[in-house]
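Title: Request for sanity check on DUF4087 domain-containing protein prediction

Description:
We are preparing a figure and want to confirm that the structure record we downloaded matches what your pipeline produces today. Could someone re-run it with the sequence below and paste the raw structure tokens into this thread? We only need the token string, no images.
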Amino acid sequence: MKIIVFTFLTFLLSQNPLLAKERRCGWLFNPTPSNWWLIDANDQWVLSLQGSHQATGVHIRNFESDEWMYAYPGGSPSYGYGCACLDVIVDYQTKYILSVENGFYQKLDVCKTDPHLPPPPFENPSQLKYLSIKEY
């Protein structure tokens, strides 16, 4: 049964480009509990929203301390942003990441020097579509 389901899912993914795995690289951002985004050159993608959407699959965490910028000095070290690439399946209408197949961290300078990426999240909080500025 597992082989049939896996084969069927593989067939669906290969036939529907809207559900194909793609690599997206940019700012991986965690401002508050259970809220994660990936901000790449194309858009802001939702990995999870507290009490709502949660992408399935691999969850990338535990950056090296010098590659994770803390959002709130003196606060939780979990919140902040880093630079990462994720292999994902996305919903283009909702901008939700449905599944994370794999991922890896990059040096902050990779994202900072990419001319196609916006500035890091806390340098320009108005770029964030799913948070109000008041949360900063």
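Thanks, this matches our download. Confidence is low (pLDDT under 50) at residues 1-15, 131-136.
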